[in-house]
Design brief:
This protein has 56 residues and is mostly helical. It has one domain. Helix content is 45%, strand content 0%. The chain has two helices and no strands. The radius of gyration is 19 Å and the shape is flat.
Length: 56
């Protein structure tokens, strides 16, 4: 399979994902609240952290 800009590029057999056009992502990324995203991802990572009683 070759990459063709502007076309949906998927290969189910190889597990390759679709390439999303930058013009699609830019408006979405412009609307995201960076601080809220940071809190959400930080909270998710903190919840996944194994509890440890050892000091580092």
């Amino acid at each position: 399979m070759t990459y063709e800009p502007g076309h949906q590029n998927t290969d189910v057999q190889c597990g390759l994902a679709t390439v999303i056009a930058l013009r699609t992502l830019q408006p979405l990324l412009a609307r995201i609240d960076g601080d809220a995203l940071d809190r959400a991802v930080g909270g998710w990572l903190a919840d996944r952290r194994p509890e440890s009683t050892e000091l580092r």
